[in-house]
Amino acid sequence: MTDIDMPQGELVRVVAEEISEAGGRAFWVGGAVRDHFMGREPVDYDIEVHGLQGEQLLEILGHHGKAVKVGKSFANFLLTGVNADWSIPDPPSETPSGGDWTDAVREAALRRDLTINALAVDVLDGSLHDPFDGLEDLERKRLRWCDKETFGRDPLRLLRVMQFIARFEFEIEPELTELCKGLDLSDVTPERIDGEFDKLLLKSSRPSLGIFWLGSMQRLGEWLSPLQRFVVPQLFERLLALDRLAIEAFEDEERELAMLWAVLGAGFKDQKPGDNFIQRARVLKWRNLLIECHDELLKGDENVDYLLKKLAHRLGPDWDLHHLFLLEEALAYGEKHAPPVSLRIRSMELGIIHGPEQELVKSGDLNGITEPGPQMGELLRKAYEMQTREGISDKAEILKRLND
Length: 404
Hints:
It is elongated, with a radius of gyration of 28 Å. It has 404 residues and is of the alpha+beta class. It contains 18 helices and nine strands. The strands form two sheets. Strands 3-4-5-2-1-6-7 form a seven-stranded mixed beta sheet. Among the domains are: 9-134, Beta Polymerase, domain 2 (2-Layer Sandwich); 250-357; 363-403, no CATH class.
């Protein structure tokens, strides 16, 4: 007996009992079952209901809270208070005369992508249905299709395989790689592509594995074309840097994505990896800022303190020098050269590692010198440059020089 544990599990069981009384059967399916057998705590839960029509399931769910149908193509439902997606197979299965749901579960599982995602567990009795030996594939750490024909119906599955390779560090059957080589993703929306790369970067400690697999099929150019400019050793170095940064902890998803895309895009002046599909505007903005500041860091300046203060000011308030040094340290790790430890130490001595030096001159201090507008902005820039480049710490002196 297999028990899939979840916070609202008792309510799910009550609903499953009512489904059974109506002639249907509820099964845990998908990632929750896979993660359970991998010893991971599931995040998303999916429940597949056999033997009922969508209207019947919606009515039963409504007995236990607010139930809504979601999606246009498939019969998927949500029940308030339960973190699970309830679905009806397409087409819906019929109640078997002998009460054996094996064939119905197998028929539905044929439409899933990989054998490790085709496991199903009966909500009521905990029995496992494993029509394509997915449990053995989990143990052997390999990725196989459930059905060759149905796999290719959704070309996005190529990128799902990519992120599974990286997340689970599984081997892929050669036949599956051959099939993926021929999948055409030209009609897949950028939003869906971005979603799979988000999972690659956010859920894996070794995203390089998925990217190397794309390269082995000569498909880097469709989504990460700038990386094709690297010879193999350079690509290896850059992906080693990506893996190094992937193990760091960041404040939120968008920050992590910006940092990881920055390490992939560092040094590229025009098109950068991901430009043709990344959807989050803030991720792109932050990635570009980090890359530009990193370029400036590498150029250097005779006045090191000024360079650090200027970069700290430009990065703020969303980023700081600590993040910039993390980016450079990851790249240095990949390229096997020493990171700029002295610059990190100096920024700590200056007290600007986690934020810029505060401006002495504010806009209100310039009211008697100029009117609000572009000229005031330029004077504020000059004032801050005097403060940081020349080390002037007397506001009155800065104002006097501006007035002159």
